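Progress against Task 2.4 (sequence-to-structure conversion) is shown through the following example record, which the project officer requested during the mid-term review.
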Amino acid sequence: MTRYQLGSGVRVEPIGQAWAGFAPGTGQTLMLNDEAAACLEVLGERPGSIEDVARLLSDDTGESLAAIIDVLKGTFELLANAGLIQPCRLATPGDSPTLATS
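Structure tokens generated for the chain above:
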């Protein structure tokens, strides 16, 4: 299961009813909906998989886990392509205790 983390230096700012996300690594700025901004907020606190983020959002909103996972699959792909999130792996025995990017 792939886990993701917020990209280095990513900024997310509210703009009216939407959000803007800037990824310094790619130079891209994306307009984000609430779901995408929520993903970035969760991943900014700790790395996680689509399922991890969906579980937290499901608990928070009361929406079904399956419905949120369906929405997040496309969202994670968009965020990753823009450089707002990146795959990571959790430390394994013998690794440094910090996260290492793949």
